[in-house]
């Protein structure tokens, strides 16, 4: 069962922070965004927009302004996921824009793994400094658009490896506290 190609991709995905320096193609990046837009989204609101960044000068600026995304310039490209608050729910469901965009991010990470590329989720929102940095570097002036994540994408060197996070002690059967095995 674990040999199923989808499961293999899920279990081999890892945060890639070391890149060979060869940039992905425009077609690859567009396909990644297409995978992102295929994510589940509450009431099909699709509260997202995406910026594909391939300009080396802008990648360098993102690298300088985002200390937690220092790998961006070397990756050769990045995909920025923006939440669109004009398309968000009203009332108590308003925060669904974050969960919907997170599902899109995970789809992009899995698609990158399946395509032999490497990627890493680096956070912008809710850190105000990171959000401002992305806004300024990429010209996101509209207040309803919130930079949620910067995803550097490139060719992995192979040094980054998946972590085994399976922990059956965190899983319960039918009732909280009742162990699986
Ligand atoms: C919401 C979120 C924010 C993250 N922000 C960063 C970040 O700013 N920089 C970074 O290098 N990794 C970031 N990561 C990646 C995590 O560090 C990584 O997923 C975690 O260490 C588990 O490793 P793995 O992705 O290889 O399984 C973030 C992950 C998530 C889900």
Please sum up the structure shown:
The protein is α+β, with helices and mostly antiparallel strands. Helices cover 35% and strands 15% of the residues.
Q: Could you explain how this protein is built, in words?
A:
Helices cover 35% and strands 15% of the residues. The model has no long low-confidence stretch (mean pLDDT 97). Strands 1, 2, 3, 4 and 5 form a five-stranded antiparallel β-sheet that branches. By secondary structure, the protein is of the alpha+beta class. Helix 3 runs antiparallel to helix 6. The chain has a single domain, classed as NADH Oxidase (3-Layer(aba) Sandwich), CATH 3.40.109.10. The chain is built from six helices and five strands; from the N terminus they run ααβααβαββαβ. Residues 14-15, 17, 68-69, 120-123, 163 line the site of flavin mononucleotide.
């Amino acid at each position: 069962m674990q040999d199923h190609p989808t499961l293999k991709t899920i279990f081999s995905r890892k945060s890639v922070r070391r890149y060979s320096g060869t940039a992905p193609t425009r077609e690859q990046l567009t396909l990644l965004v297409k995978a992102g837009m295929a994510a589940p989204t509450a009431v099909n609101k699709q509260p997202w927009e995406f910026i594909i960044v391939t300009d080396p000068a802008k990648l360098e600026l993102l690298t300088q302004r985002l200390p937690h995304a220092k790998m961006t310039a070397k990756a050769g490209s990045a995909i920025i996921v923006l939440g669109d608050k004009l398309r968000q729910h009203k009332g108590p469901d308003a925060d669904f824009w974050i969960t919907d965009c997170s599902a899109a991010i995970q789809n992009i990470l899995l698609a990158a793994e399946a395509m032999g590329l490497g990627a890493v989720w680096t956070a912008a929102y809710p850190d105000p400094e990171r959000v401002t940095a992305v806004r300024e570097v990429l010209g996101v002036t509209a207040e309803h658009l919130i930079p949620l994540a910067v995803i550097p994408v490139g060719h992995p060197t192979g040094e980054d490896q998946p972590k085994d996070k399976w922990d059956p002690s965190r899983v319960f059967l039918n009732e909280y506290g009742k162990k699986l095995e």
